[in-house]
Amino acid sequence: MLKKNLILFVALCVSIASFAQGKFYTKTGKISFLSKAPLEEIEGKNKTVTAVVDSKTGAIQFAIQMKGFEFEKQLMQQHFNENYVESDKYPKAEFKGTISNNSTINYKKDGNYPAKVKGKLTIHGVTRDVETTGSLKINGGKIDANSTFNVLISDYNIKIPAVVKDKVSNTIKITVDCDLEPLKS
Amino acid sequence: MQTKSFLLLLCLSGMAGKVLSQDSTDLLNLVGQEQPKKEYVYNAFKSPRVIMSHSMEMLRPGVLDFRILHRFGLISGGLYDFYGLDGPAVVRLGLDYGLNNNLSIGIGRSSTKELDGFIKYRLIQQANGVRNTPVSLVLVAGSTVSIKQFPNQDKYVFGDRLAYYWQGIIGRKFSTALTMQLMPIFLHRNMVDTSIDHNDVFAPGIGARVKLSKRISLNVDYYYVLHHDVSRDLSVKYYNPLSIGVDIETGGHVFQLHFTNSSGINEKAFLTETGHSWSDRDIFFGFNISRQFQLKKKKG
Question: Which distant-in-sequence residues (6+ apart) come within 8 Å of B206 by Cβ?
């Protein structure tokens, strides 16, 4: 009797697990940005991005700690945190959106699927609508999500002083590279 | 029977949780976004000096800080001396280098014909997060050597030209805007002017900065010197050094513009050779320029 119950229990749990399937996540995603100005190139890299994708609804979300950006020059990192993104005040940037062509992506079949993503990006306490394209590479039940898009830092209420106008670009290229694994719970 | 119902309950609760999270619009909460366990506090000051003194802030690894310290003449010289800009000026050129996150060294030469050098080590770094550390503790050891030509030079040995200082800095960045530090300093001079002067001088000090904007801060730097020297002919009285100024950061440079009653430009000089007083309006205008170069770049 007990054995039968146990089997029932295991079966139930497995069914719940499969019910939970369809979500993918990472906490070690990579996002970098590049500012290309006439006098200086500034690149910041963050390797601790949290990202979640819900394959059922196409919902896609990212969260990133601003202090986790690393730079070639220490002074850039200091200025980035202190003067531009004010990471004490606004520690996190977030993106919440959906994959609008989610129905064309077969998460169970390996392949490289183009993705259109639409949503709200919050940086420096300012939220803006963002629309971009990228790709989801499905490989053995994992997702490699990639995208490159531009944002204007003036959109996010970040000011560039006149003296460094030639060193900091208003157009920032953002590159997303996140490997997501199935979310088990 | 009891285990059975317990198991059922477990399954049901698991299911309920699952359904609930399915509804939740915030997917990020599913994976948990715990704050970093320990987040070190940086940028307590714009540069590794308050004005005269070492600050709780360290140079980052591989960064060379070229510092030009400049004190003009007395403002009380009036228009004739262009409020001190005619001089006589005191200048110190220095190079500081960040060996790693917690260790810096530096050398300098002052126009008062003194060389100085120091080693600065951060024992404890202020940190937020689960394991929070309320203050930073920084230790500094330094030395100055006079390269002046003495009258009757042969009477003295090289050691007579030396002075040493040891300083502890306990500092806290209270908020983005406010940083304060206590900085007791102990100075030993191998040779002093008169027999009643103390070779050992102790001075508790306090330094602070208030950020006025993202790139400008107001700084204060003060020492209470316990044993002032007595000048040979009593013509000079010595005072506690006080400097007040603003830090202006312009990208690669930090300009520290300030008013001070001390034209002394190293630890020995500002502690024991401050012969002017704020109350007599005998103050100097001065500036420090800090230019940082990244010598060793971070890989990756």
Answer: B180, B181, B182, B183, B220, B222
